[in-house]
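Section 4.2 – Deliverable D4.2 (structural model, holo form)

The reporting period included a commitment to supply a predicted holo structure for the target in complex with adenine. Inputs used:
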Amino acid sequence: MRYSVLTLFPNQVKNFLSESILGRAMEKGVLSVECIDIRDFAGNRYGKVDDTLFGGGTGMLMQCEPVYQAFSSLYNRDSEKKPHCIFMSPKGQVLTQSKARELASFDHLVFLCGHYEGIDQRVLDEIVDEEISIGDYVLTGGEVAACVVIDCISRMIPGVLPNSEAYEEESHMQGYLEAPQYTKPNIWHDQEVPEVMLSGNHAKIKEWKRLHGLYDTWKKRPDMLVKLDVSAEDWKKLLEIDKETQERNSIHKNEN
Ligand code: ADE
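Output (structure tokens):
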């Protein structure tokens, strides 16, 4: 996967993406990230890429030509296909796991990051294929949002994580949240790891994880559960888990 990020703050993006798992994936050559400084395409000595708004309004707007030239520098218009361009914006479609999965199938993605009041609409109309938001709130610029989207997509690209199971069982991948997880020691502060986890019975462990994943979804994200077709049989088991959980929690509250 090749990512190109068009930004006024290339170091912000570079610093974030060069660390940890993504940094290692870049070293291995599984991913490549280039950060293009839009200011390099300013067309004036001062690196000025913004101007005041027509029709009034406070702040400055990024101008068309520097953004257009920065985007055009990424490919040869005569011989190459236009790369898929994503504008990071609070007005965009909110990122979901399935959107990230869809984007992971591209070979080259371009992320356009706005600053100040935004970018002149005319260049957006010409180069942008879709707008993506990372949530219903406004950030100071699109850079952090682009990093979030790149991080989310990259974990699904073969060779980035050690094995595909590492993400396939995770929250949101199957439409419900991941079950709680445990590691050594077996007993901590009088709390035992669920017996089934130590049983070595893979079928039972799988079913435990499925049911407890559903249970956490019911309790933490009921909005996700309504989209799942939970059977009457599963509901019976979820109610049993609920009773056990409440009993366990009340014992703990009394002890502590
Ligand atoms: N730029 C500013 N706010 C944003 C958001 N919520 N998502 C994506 N890009 C943004």
